Amino acid sequence: SRIDQIKADLARLADPRGLSDQQANVxxxxxxxxxxxxxxxxxxxxxxxxxxxxAGWHYASCTDPKVQALLDEVIIIIDPVMNPDGRDRYLAxxxxxxxxxxxxxxxxxxxxxxxxxxxxxxxxxxxxxxxxFGICPETRGRIQAASAWHxxxxxxxxxxxPQDTYLFSPSREPINGNYPKFLHKWLDIFAGDQxxxxxRRGWRYYTGEWADDWYPGYSNAWAxxxxxxxxxxxxxxxxxxxxxxxxxxxxxYRESVHHQLLSTLVNVETLHAHRDEIKQGWFETRRACxxxxxxxxxxxxxIVPNANVTRLEAFAxxxxxxxxxxxxxxxxxSVPATDRLGRRYDALSLPAGTxxxxxxxxxxxxxxxxxxxxxxxxDAFLEKERRELIRRGDTELYDITGWSxxxxxxxxxxxxxxxxxxxxxxxxxxxxRPRGGVDHRNPGQGWVIDGTDDQTPAVAMRLMRAGxxxxxxxxxxTWGTRSYARGSLVVAREDQQRDDDSWIDALDRxxxxxxxxxxxxxxxxxxxxxxxxxxxxFDLLTTPRIAVLTESPVNSYDFGSIWHTxxxxxxxxxxxxxxxxxxxxxLRRYNVLIAPEGAGDLLEEAGPxxxxxxxxxxxxxxxxxxxxxIARDEGLSSVxxxxxxxxxxxxxxxxxxxxxxxxxxSLDAEQLWSYRVGNSSPAFPWDGVxxxxxxxxxxxxxxxxxxQFMPPGTIVAAxxxxxxxxxAGCGDELPILFGSSAVLMxxxxxxxxxxxxxxxxxxxxxxxxxxxxxxxxxxxDLRLRMSGLLWPEAAHxxxxxxxxxxxxxxxxxxxxxxxxPTFRAASLGTMRVFMNAVIYGPGLGASQPIMP
Length: 852
Ligand SMILES: [Zn+2]
What we know:
The protein is α+β, with helices and mostly antiparallel strands. The protein contains 25 helices and 41 strands. Among the domains are: 2-23 and 30-290, Aminopeptidase (3-Layer(aba) Sandwich), CATH 3.40.630; 300-427, no CATH class; 437-540. Strands 26, 27, 28, 29, 31, 32, 34, 39, 40 and 41 form a ten-stranded mixed beta sheet that branches. It has a seven-stranded antiparallel beta sheet with strand order 14-13-16-11-15-12-17, with no helix packed on it. Strands 2-1-3-8-4-6 form a six-stranded mixed beta sheet. Zinc ion binds at residues 42, 45, 158.
C-alpha cells in the first residue's frame, strides 16, 4: 500500500548512507512532508487536547480544495493526549471542586488542582523531560512511533500561567550547540506566518523570552535534534470557567482552544507551502551527519564495561530506543581521548569488548546532545546570565544544565577524538547476561553472589523476604580462583537453620529471575589475610521494611522517582505514608523511612517520636530539602549547613584534612623505630594551613554573595570512600547532579562516603592552598565540574562539601542525600547508593535486637 511505500521511502532518506543524489531526488520528490502534532503532555494543560480534536475533525471533513491539496502532499499525524493519566486526574479534580456559583478568579482551587496535580503521569513523571531517557512506557512508545515517521514539523502544545498570553517558537539562548543550524531560518518563517495570523485577529503573543533549547529532553527539543522544525506552544491556561484578567475581560476556554487550533492550522500550511525546501533541508542535515568530513565525523563515545551488566544493559536499551548504532572493540586499541573530568589522553588504551558509539550517525545531533560530556553556552549568553544574577538574582536557565548520559549512568566513559575504528570493531549486540541461578546443588559452605551488579540490593531483599539469611561482604575478597567485589552477598548454609532445602529453591529462583549467578563456595578460606567466611567481614543483613513519605507537601517528582524505582524498576514492596500523618503513624512497623524532598517541616514536627524510632534501630533517609531541614534543625543530626557554621570552619576543615592525611601519608620506618624522641617531629594534617580567617561578618557577606551563583542542576564529581558499604558498586568517582543553594557540612562523628571534588596530583601547586572553606595539600588540585554550568563562586562553596552523610543515632542511623539520588529515575549512578542505603541500611548501619 501507499503508506508502507511512504514509510519505506522515509526510512531510506533518513539514513543517507549509500544513497546517490539521483536516488535521493527521486525519493524526495515522491515523499510527502510529515507533520507530527502532539498535545497536552502535561495533563492539566487542557486546551491542546481539545484543539487536537478540532484539528482532526477539520482535516478529516474539510472539502475545501486547498485543504484537499494539502492532504495530498503532507502527512498529518495527531497525538491528541500525550498524558491521559494526568488529564483524567485533573478532570476528576475539577469535577470534585465544582461550585454552583462559578468563579473566574484564577487563584481559586478550580484553576490549579491539587497534589499530585495533573501535570504528571501515573508515577508522577514530567514526561516532557523524559525523551532522552525513555523511562516511561508512554515515552518509549512515542519515540518508536515518531522515529518511524521522521516528522519534519513537530508541534508540542502546552499551557502556562493564566495571566499570560501566547508563546511560540523560536526560543532564545542558551541554545545547545548540537541544535541543527538549518532550523533557525525555518523557525523564523513559521513564526512569521503564525504571528501574522494572530495579528489579523488582534491576539497578543510573544516568542523567546523564557523558552530555551538547551536541554534535549523536551518533546519539541527532542524532535528538533532529530531534524524536525520543533515548535512549542504555550497558551495561558484557562480551565473551566474562564479567567478574569487585569484589563477586566474574561479569557474563555473556547478562546484558549481556538489559539491552539489556529496555530496548528497555520503551521501545517507553512509546512505545505515550503515542503520541498524543508524536505531537502531535513535530508541535507542528515547527510552531513554521516559525511566523512561532517561536523561529527571525528568523535566516538566509548564505554568500558565492568561486571555491572544491568547498568550497561540500561544504557544499551536507551541507545537502541533512539535507533543509535553501537559497536564493540574486537581487540585492544589506543586512541586520543578525553575522560569525564576533562583530562586529555594522547593514547588511551581501551580493552577488547569496549562499547563504541560513533557520533557520525543519521541522528548525530540528538546523539551528541545526549552523550557529549561538556556542552558549552555562548559567551554572550554567559555574560547576560551573570549580569542578571548579580543585578536581580534572576537566572535565565529553565532546567538542568548537565545531563550527559554516561555521567548520570556513571559509566566508565570516554570521548574519543576519532571516527569509529572499523577494522577492529563489530556490531554490539550485548550485553550478555549470565543465565543466573544456582550452579551447584551441594557445596559445603553455601553460595556467593558478586556485588557489582545493580540488581544485587534488590536480590538481597527478595532473598530475605523469602526467609533466606544473607550476609554482605564489607571488603573485596578472593576465594579459590575467584575474586569478588565489596558488597557481594554470601548465603551460608549454616545461617539457614532449615530442615528442608526449599531455601535453595528460593535462592535459585530469585537469582535466576535477576540474571545473577549464585556461585558455590568450595572454600571460605580467603587467600592470605583476605576475609574468611566466618570472620567479621560478612555482616548479616536485616530484612528492610520500607516506608516512603508521600503527598503534600512532599515534592511529587522526587516522590514519583522513588516510587518508580522501588515499585517498577526493582519490584520491591513498600508502604507509602501520607506525610501529614507522620506524627501519628506507628513507625515500629518499618525499619527504613524515606523522606523525599519537601517533607522537612513535617520531619521537624515529628521530631521526638522520630528520634525515638531512630534510636531504637530505625534508618532515616532524607533527601534534598528534607536533608537540609534536618541539618538546619539542631535536634536530630549533627550535619550542618555551610551558612550556619561560618564561625566553626576550622573544625570542618580539620575533618577533611584528616581524610586527606589518611590516604596520603607515607611512613618513615627508620624514624619510627628510633629510640630517641627528639629524632622525630610528627606532622599534623593541618601543617601549612593558615587558620587566620576573615571575620565572621566578612565570611557571611562572602557566603551570601557566592550563594547567588549556585547551580540549578550541574553534574559535579564526588570522591568515593571505597570502604563504605553505602558506595558498594561505585567506582572511584561518582558524578552527582547538584542543584541547590546549600552545602552539607560534616565533622568527625559523621561518615561522608561521598564528598565533592576529586583530588589529583598537581606538581605546580607547591604550597597548601585554600579552595573555598577548606585547604588542600601541596602538590594537589581538585576536579569538580563534570558537565553543565558551574560558576567559580559556586565551585568554591561546593568543593569538599558532603554529598551523602551517614551517622549513627542510638541503635539507628540517619543518611542524608544532598541532592535527589533518583533524579527523573534516570540517574542510575546515584540511584545505586540510594538502593544500598534502603536495603543494606537496616543490617549494616543500624542494629536490631536479637529476639529471645
Ligand atoms: Zn506544559
